Amino acid sequence: DMHLDIFYDSSATIDPLMCKKNYSDDNDHPIFSDKDLILNPKDYGRFNCDSNKNLVEVIMKKASQLQTEGNFKYDSITILGDDMAHYLNRDKENISENYEKTLKYINSLLTKYFPSIKINWSLGNNDFQERYDFPSVESYNKQIVQLYKYLKLNHNVDSAELAKIEMIQNERIKNEEYLDSWYVTDISDKIVNFMFNSVLLNKKSTRLFNFENNNDINLANKYEDLVKRQFDLLEKTLKECKEKNKKMILNYHIPIFLRYVDGKFNKNWESEYSKIFDNLMDKYEDQILAVFSSHYHHGALGLRKRDKNNNTAEFGVDEDRLYMTNFNMPGVTPN
Fold it and tell me: What are the φ/ψ torsions at residue 55 (nearest 5 degrees)?
């Protein structure tokens, strides 16, 4: 979670939409006061606020330098979503332009510090210009093409892969279908990288697509097909990994595991989709090398287990069978 605020101004008043004074919605973290929201002497932004350009660049610069210091080279770089600042979409008239400015700046840093390394991205809930509200087909497709342009296609993608992506995209746009917002890449002969779009499965998104109450059945069917296509590819890829003795690294933004908020556990995904995903993770447990997510900026470790009745039990007893470990990566800032 970079949450790059391209309009950051060190002299401006603190923007309450880009900063958090406290974690009142999360009892596990401390309360911060106004004195914590002071300027960093080196102007890397305000603590507990969205990232500014200096902070994002110094992180990428250091990550690049580690290759020289450690005498190695990254095979690829995975961006787990939420590159955009919080509530960047409040400026409705300039929303597309502001998102493009953000992507262009991130692209310039990736080109500067990692010119020959493949970039893999997954969508975050703040990366849609509509934020949690799910986009129309036309708006969605424009945004997916934009993400491919700035975070993937300019970085070490061979012409054959580019041609295949563009052919599929053009055909889907012609048929007024949602584009695929997920894909598979090879890390090595034995490891594949699956970039999974979990924003599609998030309760805040799918709740808006209640098929029984949605008058636009055609649109609802297209959305349902979009979700199915992703699960079909995930299952197909896992099956191929098993047949060819390969491993998969699975990456997504919003994790499947629960979060403890205000004295209760909240589910992130719709139950129907959680069940499909859990069954795949359980069935192909031996093919999953690692699962990475983000969304929660403080980082976390999520465990998925089966109890004696073969039901998912995230917080079960030690004897429960563990079938998935989810590493949740921390954000650039706590905000």
Answer: -65, -45
